[in-house]
Specification:
Largest sheet: none
Low-confidence stretches: none
Helix content: over 70%
Order of helices and strands: HHHH
Strand content: under 5%
Structural class: mainly alpha
Number of strands: 0
Mean pLDDT: 81
Radius of gyration: 26 Å
Shape: flat
Distance between the termini: 64 Å
Number of helices: 4
Oligomer: single chain
């Protein structure tokens, strides 16, 4: 029974080794020259003037979610374009495929318009 789990355990140990061994090699073999500038809380050249845990506006997250949404839309359109070219060449149900993607794009555009009308994309 252990023979069934041996490859899985081997992959787990190899994966852990790939993550842990470089960390310890860098820590032990790398240069260590701490100084006042490197030991400071921020290395940006000036002292912190606000708390690092300040609250962000909700619109920041909303725009990030919209970016991910439209980024995924583009990721779905590339394979569709490749398959659509083959569907046209084969004479298969190319219009059905085209209509389904247009419905997909219409739903995304309607969502984008709703977000725009609600003022989620306006910065003050």
């Amino acid at each position: 029974m252990l023979d069934n789990y041996l490859p899985v355990l081997l992959f787990v140990f190899i994966g852990l080794a790939f993550g842990v061994v470089p960390f310890f090699l860098g820590k032990t073999l790398g240069p260590n020259r701490p100084g006042a500038g490197k030991m400071a809380a921020y290395e940006c050249g000036f002292d912190a003037f606000e708390d690092a845990r300040m609250k962000f506006d909700v619109r920041y997250y909303l725009i990030a979610i919209l970016f991910i949404l439209f980024d995924l839309e583009i990721a779905f359109l590339f394979p569709w374009a490749v398959v659509f070219k083959d569907f046209i060449a084969a004479g298969a149900a190319a219009w059905f495929l085209f209509g389904s993607v247009m419905v997909f794009l219409a739903i995304l555009v309607i969502g984008y318009i709703v977000e725009w009308k609600n003022g989620a994309l306006d910065w003050e």
